[in-house]
Amino acid sequence: MKSNKFFRNSAIVTALLASLCCITPVLAVLGGLSGIASTFSFLEPLRPYFIAFTAIILGYAFYNAYKPKKKDEIECACDDEKVETKKSFINSKSFLWIVAVIAVVLITFPYYSQAFFPQRDKPESKSELSANFPKGVLRTNHIIKANLEIEGMTCTSCEQSVDYALKSEKGVLSAESSYKTGIAYVQFDDTKVQPEQLKKAVENKVGYKVKKIQTIPEGTSNEKEN
Questions:
Q1: Per-domain residue ranges for the chain?
Q2: CATH of domain 120-217
């Protein structure tokens, strides 16, 4: 049982290590802890290995728990029955399943992390922005596109955190980031928000560094950079 306890604990640790790089950006933007956003980003390249280790460790723990017991092991278990009764749940198969569920929840965090972000009001559409101008005032085109080159994004949780921070700025029509390219594609009304404010939103709320901002007037192709 002691060996199974070791494997259960190891599974939780490796699963946690596999998810830390994805959990911290969400904590940064929702909890105002921007300083921790990229703390564990160095673990991202090791994530597949941590997941593999977790699967192997849990597999062995389940094998150990469900394999047929030998006669001498059964007799030994009877002798220690009183001692084991106090720790029966911790050493039980049910607890092993709980550990397995926790490990899966941690590892799959990037795929459901968007559930932690509260729904925001839908950004104003172009027609609504135009309608806000007084009658008789000719509205010029103030819709701007911008590419923000961001350092530190490593997974989909990072993308969602950056998108949430940008969309929380008044005047932002849309925001879509990609951790693969390291770029956030934003469309905004420059009468309500400026590129520098978008930069501060990412750096102050999420904690990632914005290396470069490229603004593109509407109507110009906003192609993704390689």
A1: 2-115, 120-217
A2: 3.30.70.100
